[in-house]
Structure formats: C-alpha cells, structure tokens
What does this fold into?
Amino acid sequence: MLELAVAVPLLALVLAGVMEFGRVFYTAAEVSNAARAGVQYAAINTANASNFDGMQQAATNDAANVPAMTATASQFCECPDGTSTSCSTGSCSLKRTYVKVVTSAQFRTMGTYPGIPNPISVSSQATLRVQ
It folds into this structure.
C-alpha cells in the first residue's frame, strides 16, 4: 500500500511532463508548418511573391490552432555571388529573389514547473527562392 502511495503521485508528475512536452512540440510543428505555408503561397505565381499580406494570412490560416501566432513576410534579393542587392534597382545580372516568412508564438504550460519558463517562445522561419 505504501508503494502505491509513493508511485501514484510520481506517475502523475511524469504524465504531466509528457503531456507538456507533447504540447510544446505540437506548437513548434504548427509554427514551423505555418512559415512554410506562407512561402508556399508566394511560390504559386510571381505576383504572390510581393503580396506580403497574403503570405502572412496563409501562415496564420495554417496555424489556426495556435493562439496569437504572428507572421511577418519579407522579400530580399541577392546576386549570384551571394552579395545582397536591391530588389527594385539591383546592379547585378541574374538577380535572385527570395521571400522569407517568420512565425512566432508564445506557448503557455498548464502549470508552473521549476526550471521551465512560462511562457516559452516558439518561432520558425522559412525562405524560398521565387525567381
């Protein structure tokens, strides 16, 4: 009987830890997938590559289960040698255009645990060459 009294709270603590671990990794996967959905929206056609609101909305729609997730879309260009250049007035030939979507959310644990911050920041970014 004494063993059961010791084992049940310990098992409950382990179960709570496993649940929180699963929840934080689910949130991280959703945030990562949302960033990918944003750049995939830009890859549909060249007009979408400059539609930052559309990319952000695609990312937000993909992570509907993550409350208060934010998405930020941007565009940048590089020359073939890897140097940065302006997308509108680039000075190199064969300029490469990229879009980047950065997503982030705050994960809140169900309880407070020693050594584990609450909330936990979860973020991801995806970059895709569009031209």
